[in-house]
Amino acid sequence: MTAPTKAKQAQALVRRYFDACNAADHQALLDCFTSDAVHYFPPGLPGAPWRGAKAIADGWVWCVKTLGSRWTIEKVLAGESGREAVIEWTHWKTATGEVLRGDEWYVFNDDTTRIAEIRAYYASPVNKAEPVNKLHDFDYEGRGYAMAPPSAAPKLS
C-alpha cells in the first residue's frame, strides 16, 4: 500500500476539519490547526480574524450552538506539494434560515498535518435580507451543489 500524495493528504485534512466543524468537536478542531493558526474573514465579522487554534475552535462551536451551523464542501483543489489548497463551501445557518457560499485558501504546515492559515472569501456580500446568499444566476443545483444542509445541527448545551 502506498502513502497518500501530499495533495490527497491536504484534501483529507480539509475534510477532517469540516467534519469536526459539523460535529462541533472542539478537540478535533484543535487537532486540525497549528497553535498559532489564523482564520481571516471578509469585513463585518466581529472579532475577526480568529487567531489561534482555540479561537477558531471556539468560534465554530459557537456557530453550531447559536446558528445551527452546518457546512458542506463543494469543491477541493490541493497543490501537489500539499502546502496549499482552495475549496468552495456552503455554510448553512439552520437556526436563522441563512445560507452563505464562498471560497477559502488554505496554507498548511510543512508536513501537511495541520492548517496554519485560512483566508475566507464570500461569494457575495452578506445580505441579511436574503435567505440564501449566492452568486447571481449561478446554477448551484444544476452543477451538483448541496441544496440542503448535510444533517440537522446537533443539540449542544
UniProtKB/TrEMBL annotation:
<feature type="domain" description="SnoaL-like">
    <location>
        <begin position="14"/>
        <end position="117"/>
    </location>
</feature>
<dbReference type="InterPro" id="IPR037401">
    <property type="entry name" value="SnoaL-like"/>
</dbReference>
<dbReference type="GO" id="GO:0016853">
    <property type="term" value="F:isomerase activity"/>
</dbReference>
<dbReference type="InterPro" id="IPR032710">
    <property type="entry name" value="NTF2-like_dom_sf"/>
</dbReference>
<protein>
    <submittedName>
        <fullName>Ketosteroid isomerase</fullName>
    </submittedName>
</protein>
<dbReference type="Pfam" id="PF12680">
    <property type="entry name" value="SnoaL_2"/>
</dbReference>
<keyword id="KW-0413">Isomerase</keyword>
